[in-house]
Amino acid sequence: MKIKYITLAIAIVAIAKTSYAQYSQDAIRFSGFQTGSTSRIKAVGNACTAIGGDLSSISGNPAGVGFFTRSEFSITPEFNNANVKASYLGQNNSANSASGNLNNASVVFFNRISKMPGTDKTKGLLSLNFGVGYARTNDFYQKTYYAGTNKNSSIADYYAGLANQDVRGNFGDPSSGDFNYLEGWAYQHYLINKDANNNYAASTDLGGDQMSSTVRSGGQSEINLALGANYSNKLYLGLSLGITDLRYNYTSYFTENNTEYVNYNQEFSSVYGLDQATKGSGVNGKFGVIYKPVEAIRFGATVTTPTWITIDDNTAESLYTQYSGSGGTHNNNASYGVTYTLRTPAKVAGGLSIFIKQFGFITGDVEYVDYTTTHITSNDYDPGNDNADIKQFYKSAVNYHAGAEARLTPNFFLRGGYGIQGNPMKQYGSDIKTASGGLGFRFGSYYVDATYTHVTGSNTVFPYTVENGISPSADLNKSVDNVYLTFGVRF
Q1: Any alpha helices (H) in 202-312, and if so which ranges?
Q2: Tens digit of pLDDT for each residue in 134-147?
Q3: Per-residue confidence (pLDDT) for residue 179, from 0 to 100
């Protein structure tokens, strides 16, 4: 497991700035999912904890399933366009990616509870409804590109640092002929050598041109089975079981064009490549309640258990170096797989909705997530460093959602909202902010809703770290424009 334990640092330092954070970074990424919802709920800031009566309740607060008085079905496709602007070593670049997916598809079956003749049909258990829904809860599609001239360090300084760590920790010595790991490859490629003090040092000049290109794809989704009960049109209770699916693919290349001055005194181009394919499945549960003390006010709360996901991760990495002259070409690669179990954090949310007769409503909710409770177990490797990194580099976060709907005519609705997803990192990142707006049309038993959202966020990434030196960093600013369309029918 030495390759996996050390060499993937170049891909992950981008978040945690540590050499032992491969699975900890993925664990947090896979723990940050949101409620997959209809266009209507997207438009009001995804604040669905206390609304009820929307098909988003199946994947959000299952107590809202109890509000339905007719069966209902809807489907919500989405289109996304992401742009990442990067600043690295004084140079600006950008990269775009586009994708289309199914965000939500849900159905609720209304089931009225029979009452004895002569009893009050507005008291007691009035309905027990069942819902089934698909919800996309996380989207990984993103491209990044940054480049610049580095006058302070070389990627070879990173390789030399790894080699010195090996010697100090008695993990091996590249000069002994052990080339089956990244720093050994770098020694074989003449990018690092031993200096006069018998320490490893870069064999490269400063001022090399560096480029980083990454492509991410995939997402997370849930199939939810929900029950919602209506008690006296006042208290609504719900339970749901979520079956999760995870697909994540990551490809990155870090290139440096520089000069090697110890052995060949020649120009070279060296490329570190990493290709990761991850898939998994898991399960969670939700319990929800909505209380309506008066017709105009609804209080809601939801508890989501941790999600337990079994994950299969397969990774291939390579180092390719080509010299301009007699140094020739050097190429090494390796691949390996790991299976581990991820426990994501539990979530607690509370919300309030105020309905203004038939004219519309305002709604808001708050959600708390403690990312430090994320935990990894595995029989394939020791996850102790990953679990320690989770507690050291991450923190709890609070997510906020608020929005409103106005009924302009009996069949036409205008909506708007805003959401903040709290940053799970202690540093090198920002909250993710979402502004949304949408329209809704009702005609008989059918309806169509359209929503546009604009998502922004930023973080700082480190392509590699340098011992006792200045580690280069890139500032990334991401914006995503999303369009959602919901087509629904009541029956």
Answers
A1: none
A2: 999 999 999 999 99
A3: 67
Rounded Cα distance between 176 and 170, Å, is 12
pLDDT tens-digit series, residues 266-279: 999 999 999 999 99
C-beta atoms surrounding 402 within 10 Å? 20
Indicate the Cα dihedral angle 300, 306, 307, 313, nearest 10°. Answer: 140
236 residue type, one letter: Y
Tell me which of 62-71, 171-180, 395-404 is least confident.
171-180
Chain position carrying tokens 């438009």 = 43
Q: Choose among 456, 491, 446, 454: nearest CA to 476.
A: 456
Size of the chain, expressed as the number of residues it contains: 491
Query: Which CATH architecture is the domain 2-154+204-490 placed in?
Result: Beta Barrel (2.40)
- Evaluated on CA atoms 168, 173, 178, 179, the torsion sign reads positive
Does residue 46 have a pLDDT over 60? yes
* Percent of the chain at pLDDT exceeding 70: 95
Q: What is the full DSSP assignment across 82-125? A: EEEEEEETTEEEEEEEEEEEEEEEEEEE--BPP--TTS-TTSSE
Q: Are 25 and 15 spatial neighbours (Cβ–Cβ below 8 Å)? A: yes
Domain residue spans of the chain: 2-154+204-490
